[in-house]
Amino acid sequence: MKILVKELDTLVKTNIYGDYKICVKCGDPADVIESNKDYCCNCWFEKVNGKSFQEVEKLIKEEERFIKKK
Questions:
Q1: Claim: this prediction has a pTM higher than 0.70
Q2: Given phi > 0 = left and psi -120 to 50 = alpha, else beta, which region is 35?
Q3: How many domains does one find in the chain?
């Protein structure tokens, strides 16, 4: 039983390629390697764009509301 739990835990932490790499910023499974550092998609997006997905989503919704008002 302990082996099964350990295998499931490892499966949960693997990335989309089946590798076991951890994001240097948040500790989630890492899917992106940039400058020899492993990042999850959210942390990489924030590093590249300077904003999180949630901030960008909020900006898009505000722009859509502005366009609808015209």
A1: no
A2: left
A3: 1
